[in-house]
Write a structure and sequence with these properties.
One of its GO terms (molecular function) is oxidoreductase activity. With about 425 residues, this protein is α/β, with parallel strands linked by helices. Helix content is about 45%, strand content about 10%. The protein is globular, with a radius of gyration of 21 Å.
Length: about 425
């Protein structure tokens, strides 16, 4: 499947990820079988089988009746790759740079909260695999392991800190200081989730782990400002972890206090001061007007995202937003993408529409749920192999060649889905 003497293997700055296919085809001869199938529907089904009802809903629930989730997937279907033939892809390489970090591919780990729900090793396993594969890792400030522990697990990897901005400025700055001290090299402010959307299945069973078994989590309980706030409120987190968790979430994470552009200017200034000028991004941008405003106030980048359909039911597909935003400000700011990504072709299409980088979430969550660190590694190595093979067989030797000329786009049409729970 891939000649071990192929010159591409030697000239690349990254491993030839495509070799995983050869390895997997040969493995049965050595009595080795894969831990699970990485096809997205099979992956999803296996994760659902392994998780509790609560864990599954936290991974899979979307806002309302899933219209935005469905829009994300159908938007990818609308764009088709145009394969090119007789092109010298023997010279290909998947490596790229993001904010000065040379990484293995234009693929990163999106921030996802409370990974202990999926596996006891949680964020530690994910951060470790990200470092091994030389892919950017984003830690959610709603995570379950401490900022410091995740930084140690990621070693010399490229890591960014996703912030749910507390209305308590002292608490907010404490989080940023800890992130910088732990080697996180960019701040990503999530702008679309200062309050959780209405998610029918979650509210029906009271599925909010921070109010129940997980409490405040290690990020909160290793924070000096939050410990001070607990003391001021007379809450002993060891005796009453649920009350501590309630205070952490209600006052600092999904608190219901809307973000503003003016406050974001203050946050950028403070992050730049604390970090020594490291990049600042806004996540959740869907509007061209908001993208232009992000440029105006001095953001280094944006993540075009609708939170994978988990926040505004009936919203624009993130991929459709990406196309418009890249046309408007693509030459002025670093534009990255997430939402609805399931395959290498999805990544290709987002790059073709103008994204510099693509973050994935649910794929590695499912892998973590099924088999912890092994599962995350298996899913992400398979995705890297799929992407490497895709650019090879479709005739694109460099990432720069993947542009709008590489895809054919069907007209936007409204289609009533037969199954809104589409993968």
């Amino acid at each position: 499947m891939s000649d071990l003497n192929n010159p591409n293997i030697a000239i690349r700055s990254t491993p030839q990820w495509a070799l995983k296919q050869r390895e997997m085809f040969w493995a049965p001869n050595d009595g080795i079988f894969q831990p699970f199938d990485t096809e997205p529907d099979a992956l999803k089904a296996k994760a659902k089988e392994r998780l509790t009802e609560q864990g599954w809903l936290y991974a899979a629930s979307n806002a309302g009746i899933n219209w935005t989730h469905y829009a994300n997937r159908t938007a990818f279907y609308r764009h088709r790759i145009i394969p090119r033939m007789l092109r010298d892809t023997n010279t290909r390489d998947t490596a790229t740079t993001l904010f000065g970090h040379k990484v293995s591919a234009p693929i990163g780990f999106a921030p996802v909260g409370i990974n202990r729900i999926y596996h006891p090793t949680g964020e530690l396993s994910v951060a470790k695999v990200a470092q091994e594969l030389n892919l950017p890792y984003c830690l959610s400030s709603a995570g379950s392991y401490s900022i410091e522990a995740v930084g140690e697990a990621n070693k010399d990897g490229c890591r960014f800190f996703q912030l749910y901005q507390s209305p308590d400025d002292e608490q907010c700055l404490s989080m940023l200081e800890r992130a910088v001290e732990s080697g996180f090299t960019a701040c990503i402010l999530t702008t679309d989730t200062w309050q959780l959307a209405w998610r029918h299945h979650d509210v029906n069973i009271g599925n909010y782990a921070f109010y129940h078994e997980h409490g405040a989590g290690d990020i909160a309980l290793n924070d000096p400002v939050f410990l001070k706030r607990l003391k001021e409120a007379g809450i002993d987190h060891e005796k009453d972890p649920k009350r501590a968790g309630q205070k952490w979430m209600d006052e600092n994470i999904w608190h219901g206090h809307a973000h503003t552009w003016e406050k974001t200017k203050w946050l950028i200034k403070e992050w730049k001061r604390i970090s020594g000028g490291k990049p600042f991004l806004l996540k959740g941008i869907q509007s061209v007007r908001d993208a232009k405003k992000a440029v105006e106030i001095g953001c280094d980048g944006i993540v075009v995202s609708n939170h994978a359909g988990r926040q505004v039911d009936g919203a624009i597909a993130s991929l459709d937003a990406l196309e418009k935003i890249c046309d408007a400000v693509g030459d002025q700011i670093v534009i990255t993408y997430d939402s609805g990504v399931r395959t290498a072709s999805d990544i290709f299409k987002a790059l073709a529409l103008g994204a510099r980088f693509v973050f994935v979430g649910r794929l590695w969550i499912y892998g973590l749920s099924i088999q912890g660190e092994i599962g995350v590694r298996h899913v992400m190595r398979a995705l890297l192999a799929e992407f490497d093979i895709l650019v090879n067989v479709s005739g694109y030797a460099t990432l720069e060649e993947i542009d709008k000329e590489a895809i054919d786009s069907l007209p936007r049409v409204a289609i009533m889905p037969t199954d809104a729970h589409i993968t």
